[in-house]
Design brief:
64% helix, 3 helices, 75 residues
């Protein structure tokens, strides 16, 4: 059963490879895939950003004044 199926698939493959229309369509399909891969690779290169160093605690809160006590309560 499996051998018959493989032979049938092989016959269909040979018939497709001898068909000019199939060869033309497969060539166009291959070129479309290559163009898509090339477009995706250029997009990923353009999207990359330089990694920035994380801010230090002192840099994050340098404009803050922690000495102000609006409620007036002490601990």
């Amino acid at each position: 059963m499996l051998q018959e199926r493989l032979e049938h698939i092989n016959l269909l493959r040979k018939a497709a490879l001898s068909d000019e229309v199939f060869q033309q369509l497969s060539q166009e399909h291959r070129q479309a895939i290559e163009a898509e891969i090339k477009a995706e690779s250029t997009l990923t290169v353009q999207k990359r950003k330089k990694k920035t160093k994380p801010k230090l605690f002192s840099q994050r809160y340098q404009d803050s004044d922690f000495n102000v006590n609006p409620s007036g309560t002490t601990h």
